[in-house]
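I hope you will forgive my troubling you with a question about protein structure. You will find the record immediately after this paragraph.
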Amino acid sequence: MSEKIETQSVETVRAHRVKSFCACVGISASTFWKYVRLGKIKTIRIGGRVLVPHAEALRIASEGLK
């Protein structure tokens, strides 16, 4: 019995989990939450999970966290 593992390309990702977002941006989780409190990173909640929308990740990639 074989399992099919489905992968997603960057283009199909609609939101990022906090841990993977922090790793990509190069910040710690505590810094992430500080920026969320300051309004520098916008998040969404889906089913109790906190996610960073892909559009927000692209904005941060281009502008940075000023």
Observations:
- The chain has a mean pLDDT of 86.
- DSSP finds three helices and three strands in the chain.
